[in-house]
Amino acid sequence: MAATVVLDNGAYSLKVGVASDQEPKFIPNCITRSKAERRKNFIGDQLEECKDLSGLYYVLPFQRGHLVNWDTQRQVWDYVLGEAVMALQSETHSLVVSEPVYNFRSIQDTMNEIFFEEYKFSSLLRLPAPSYSSFLYQQAHPSSLCCLVVDTGYSFTHIVPYYRGKIVEKGVKRIDVGGKLLTNYLKEIVSYRQLHVMDETYVMNQVKEDSCYVSQEFLRDMDTSRKKGSANTILREYVLPDFTNRRRGSLREPVGKSGHQQQQHNQQTDEQCLKLANERFSIPEILFHPSNIGIEQMGIPEAIAHSISLTPAPMHPHLYANIIVTGGNALFPGFETRVLSEVRKIAPDDYDVNVTVPEAPPSYAWLGGATLASASSKPGHLVPVTLAEYREHGHSLCYRRFNKMQVWTPSSTT
């Protein structure tokens, strides 16, 4: 039976499933090797079979947000499409796939070739991930002519304004800060202050996810983190995994012992702990102030305001009122509140400001792709390219339908 496969091809993880699924399956977009099992490669979620997750070596398809390692990506796709989803008979299936914003034409052409000529999908729809998010948001808010998608993912943060489902190209902005940079910076700080963890990307990514939050008052929290004893309400201990009894670490309140007693306690319980104070909020703060680590770019609130300022003036109130935030970094506690408060300070007083973080930000684009694939009637500019059309017209048709027709211009008939 023919079905539509939806593949949100992220740099950190693939979100994949058929359009009728309620939610996608998350699979790491990488091949990993372990120090304990050096001769074995773990593709995607095969990593769950690895006994020792310390010191993992990653082979990534994406570098700086672009797909450059095709051998690795093909192995992950072969595994995902052939095993993780179903025993796929591609000839009878359609594919909805995401790509980065402003993807290179050469990468787009190679994706067309692989999906049509090698996997032989019957049809293909390939759009930037924020376009699927925009479609899902506007399905839920049909009266909204515009929306602004903030996609803060693994490699970059993109701000993309939309008018009636099309990208307003002049307003697209990119911040060179994503989840990968935050994890790497956390590794550097902890390695300098406490314990060498530069080779522990997997573990430190968990530390970031479990312990970090977005501060609403950065200077106040910084003062609190310097205090001693019970006055320091920010200090936490992170119990590191030992991969025997614990595969994932855990965050806890400080046990309240002196340094010597704490060391004895850890030895008795066979625990290795990190003490986390200002690291908990200074890492996500980079999303709001990249200049803190020498990246001379705007933070997310300023980039939102700048993006909107570059669009036609009649769109401005609609864009401020319909800001949707997706991607893994939106999971930080306090993220939505901070973005809303700072954008509100910048926006004109007579404009309403509304920031929406969906219940599952990392899978929102996938849900948009699934909704689009399942829609009974699609707008003409969202029609996929069929295998027969590709064989007749080649890459030029894909470029027109997936690139040029997705960009709004003042003369667009919408």
Characterization of this structure:
- The chain has 414 residues and is of the alpha+beta class.
- The chain folds into 3 domains: 4-128 and 363-406, Nucleotidyltransferase, domain 5 (2-Layer Sandwich), CATH 3.30.420.40; 134-177 and 296-358, Nucleotidyltransferase, domain 5; 179-284, Alpha-Beta Complex (Actin, Chain A, domain 4).
- Helix content is 35%, strand content 19%.
- It has helices at residues 70-84, 105-118, 129-140, 179-193, 201-211, 218-225, 259-269, 279-282, 300-309, 316-320, 335-346, 364-374, 387-393, 395-402; strands spanning 4-9, 13-18, 25-28, 31-33, 42-43, 57-59, 62-63, 66-67, 94-99, 123-128, 146-152, 157-163, 166-167, 173-175, 236-239, 250-252, 273-276, 323-326, 355-356, 385-386.
- It has a 6-stranded mixed beta sheet, with helices on both faces.
- Strand 18, helix 11 (335-346) and strand 19 form a beta-alpha-beta unit.
- Helix 4 (179-193) packs across helix 5.
- It is globular.
- The model has no long low-confidence stretch (mean pLDDT 89).
- Residues 249-268 are annotated as: Disordered.
- Its main location: cytoplasm.
- Belongs to the actin family. ARP6 subfamily.
- InterPro entries: Actin (IPR004000), ATPase_NBD (IPR043129).
- This is Actin-related protein 6.
Features of the shown structure:
6-stranded mixed sheet, Actin, Chain A, domain 4, Nucleotidyltransferase, domain 5, 414 residues, alpha+beta, ATPase_NBD
Strand content: 15-25%
What gyration radius follows from the Cα positions, in whole Å? 23 Å
Task: Fill in the CATH topology of the largest domain.
Answer: Nucleotidyltransferase, domain 5
Number of strand segments:
20
The 3D shape can be described as: globular
Q: What structural class do helix, strand and pairing data support?
A: alpha+beta
Oligomer: single chain
- The CATH superfamily of the largest domain is identified as ATPase, nucleotide binding domain
Name the helicity range: 25-40%
Flag low-confidence runs: none
Q: So what's the CATH class of the largest domain?
A: Alpha Beta
Largest sheet: spatial strand order: 3-2-1-9-10-20
Annotated CATH architecture of the largest domain:
2-Layer Sandwich
End-to-end Cα distance, whole Å, is 35 Å
- Number of helical segments? 14
Number of domains: 3
Average pLDDT confidence is 89
The biggest sheet, with number of strands, parallel, antiparallel or mixed sense and barrel status, is: 6 strands, mixed
